Amino acid sequence: MPTTIEISFDGPRTTYSPGEMVSGWVRVHVDKPKRIRAVSIKFSGDASVWWTEKRGTCRTGENSHRVKDRIYSAYEKYFRHTLYFVGGEASTVTLDAGDHTYPFQCLLPQTLPNSFEGRHGYVRYTAKATISRWRSVEARVAFTVNSVVDLSMFPQAKEPVECVQSKEFTLLWGEPSGGPLTMSVRIPKGGYFPGQTIPFLIKVDNASSIDVVNVRGALIQVVTWHATRDNNTLETAERVVDLVFDSPVPANHSKAFCQELTVPPVLPSHLDNCNIIDLEYFLAVTARVSGAHFNLEIKAPILIGTAPEAEKSLEEKTFAEKSLSEKSLPEKSLPWPGDFAHPRGPPSLPSPDLLPPSYEESVLGQHQR
C-alpha cells in the first residue's frame, strides 16, 4: 500500500460557526521508513472574485483592431493556521513505516464571513494535510462556516414592507392606451428565515386597455461582486424560487389576492466581514402584459436570517384577512369576492431548533427551484 494521508473531522458534521473549535485527526500510512521534512495541516480561509468584460473591436478609418478584454478581480485573506505534527519547515526527519494518527484543533476567528460559492467568486475554507518531501503527498477537505444572523437585531426585519409601481402604455400610433397599470405588494414584515413562509398581498388596478396575462412571483438572490480595479462592480441575479399565479387581470379591471412563498435553505443576507461580495434578497412580483409591451415589476427587499423569532405576532397571523378587508381601492374597482385567491392558511413557523442551511444545500442548490 503506498503512502497515504487523510483528514477526518470529529463528528459527522463539517459546518462550524466563527469562534468555534475545529477538531479531528490526520491519519498517515507509510509503507516503509521515509525521509521527510514534515507532516502538517494548514487551515485557510479566503475569498476571490473575478469576471471579464468583452471590449469588442475599435475601428479607425479603414483600419480596425480588437480591444483587449478587461479582467476584473479581487482577493481577501481571512486567516491561515499551520500545525506541525512531525518536523518543520527546514528540518529532515525519518517517518517510520506503519500507521500514524495525529489529533488537531484549530480555533476559528470570530470575524469570518459565511462560506459562499457563486458564478464569479467564492468564500472558501479548507484544511490541507501534507507529508512534505521531494514528492509531497497531500489531502485537502473543505469545511463550512455559517454564522447566525439574528433577525431580532435588525429593526427593518419587524417593519412591514409595501411597494407600489405604475406605468402607462402607448399604442403603436403613439396614442395612450387608457389609464395606468398600478400594482402594489404588501408584506407583514421585512425579515424571514429558511423554512418560514412569506405571506404577501398583491393588488393590481388595471385602468389601461392592455390585459394582464398573469402575475409571477419569485424570491431573487442578488449578488454584487466588487473588484479592486477601477472600483468596478458587477451584479448578478438568480431566481431561487419561482411561482406563476393564474391570475389574469383584464383591461379596466382590478384584482387583489394573497399568496405565500416558503423560504428555501439559502445563505443569510449580506456576507458580513467580506468586502468583495454582497448578498441581497428581493421578493419580485411581475405583472405580465399582453402584446409588445414591457411588463410591470416590483422588487421588495427581504432580509434573510438564521435565528427563529420567539413567537409570531397577532398582526402577522391575521395579515391576509386584514389586508383583504381594507378599502384601499375605490369601491367600484374592487374585485368580486370570487376573484380573491385566499391563502391556504396562516404561515407556519418551523421548529425553534431549525439549523442554518448546510454548505451543500446553499451552494449546490438542493432546494426548490
TrEMBL record:
Chain segments carrying region Disordered: 314-369
UniProt KW Lipid biosynthesis keyword: no
Domain of life: Eukaryota
A Pfam family: Arrestin_N
Composition bias type Pro residues, residue spans: 344-355
Keywords, comma-separated and alphabetical: Sensory transduction
InterPro entries: Arrestin-like_C (IPR014752), Arrestin-like_N (IPR011021), Arrestin_C-like (IPR011022), Arrestin_domain-protein (IPR050357), Ig_E-set (IPR014756)
Gene Ontology biological process terms in this record: protein transport
SMART domains: Arrestin_C
Domain Arrestin C-terminal-like: 177-309
Listed Basic and acidic residues bias regions: 314-330
GO cellular component: cytoplasm
Stored SUPFAM superfamilies: E set domains
Family annotation (PANTHER family): ARRESTIN DOMAIN CONTAINING PROTEIN, ARRESTIN DOMAIN-CONTAINING PROTEIN 1
Family named by the database record: Belongs to the arrestin family.
Protein name, per record: Arrestin domain-containing protein 17-like
Species whose genome carries this gene: Frankliniella occidentalis (Western flower thrips)
